Amino acid sequence: MSHGRDYRQDEPDTGELVEKIRQWGRELGFAEVGVADTDLSGYEARLDEWLAEGRQGEMDWMAAHGRKRSRPALLHPDTRSVIVARMDYLPESARPVEELLEQPDRAVVSRYALGRDYHKLIRKRLKKLADRIEREIGPFGHRVFTDSAPVLEKPLAEKAGLGWIGKHTVLLNRHAGSWFFLGEIYTDLELPPDRPVSQHCGSCRRCIDVCPTQAITEPFQLDARRCISYLTIELKGSIPVELRPLMGNRVFGCDDCQMVCPWNRYAQHTGEADFAPRKDLDAGDLVELFGWDETTFLERTEGNPIRRTGYERWLRNLAVALGNATTSERVVGALRARRKHPSGLVREHVEWALARHDAD
Question: What share of the chain is helix, strand, coil (3-state, %, to 5)?
Fold first, then answer.
């Protein structure tokens, strides 16, 4: 974070500066960079409605920061513009989700979580971008974010012209689909904002129809409490029994709505080695993963997004997937071996899974 020189929109070279920022962003590995203003009033009303309906589930942090999420200047004083960048994350070597879903004894991990955690990488790149701007114009007030603070990332990206929020509530880009991360630089520079792009979902409803748990309740409306990403990552307690059979072999996140989206035929593979899949996480064997002790879990998930779920919830998720796997002595034996696990949460899901296989 830095404070200093003011840089006004009426200076003749702000447009030129933005073009330089785009170029510097590309040099740092970002696929695209745009600029948004800070008026999120329309999105604020929708957020209020979503929270009032309780659709955030246990994600209390969605409502914990007052208006800071929808009013950027409350989060970082004097914010006048937001520089938004996106970075592709889909690894070329990752096995297609469609194939993995047809192998019930294999674990499906969301594509974004196959490699190294993106937070540090993107934050470092954004700081380098801010430093490059500073070398050009002198000190200016700014702060860098990437999924790390109360920020309405997708609305800001939509305002910055990086895409539109699709019916599945994920940001879509006509030339790159949706397999990308977002990051922001809040700044006191008054930069000319980009024009938002129009919405191009049309009459398509593939994402709505494919959702295993019907979490997309209507176009552009997501009930997080039913979403497999929420259930496997954010939910701390017991997964609702009625949703467990619908989860299949998805053990961390869910990509089904992105998998079927026609716009993802244009998705670009990442050039970042850090996002390459780890062999244990791309099509991992459910029984082998369930056999990890906590030390192994911590070793294999070091620097990976799965670490934040914690060992207990990792076993919970795997128990559900094993309950949905093909019945075999190997699967039943793995579940029985966890029957006396010290965690009541794990034991409960193990018993459910054993009952699915008619095993006592």
Answer: 40, 10, 45
**In this structure, which amino acid lies at residue 86?**
R
Q: What secondary structure letter does DSSP report for 150?
A: S
Place of tokens 């997937």: 321
pLDDT in tens, 332-350: 999 999 999 999 999 999 9
User: What DSSP letter does each residue of 77-98 carry, written as one string?
Assistant: TT--EEEEEEEE---TTSPPHH
Q: Which residues are catalytic?
A: 147
Backbone φ, ψ for residue 99 (5° rounding)? -65, -40
Q: Which residues contact 23 (CB under 8 A, 6 or more apart)?
A: none
Give the pTM: 0.92
The annotation places the binding site at: 69, 147, 171, 182, 201, 204, 207, 211, 227, 229, 236, 254-255, 257, 261
Taking only the tens place, the pLDDT of each residue in 276-327 is 999 889 999 999 999 999 999 999 999 999 999 999 999 999 999 999 999 9
Domains in the chain: boundaries: 14-97+111-187, 215-356
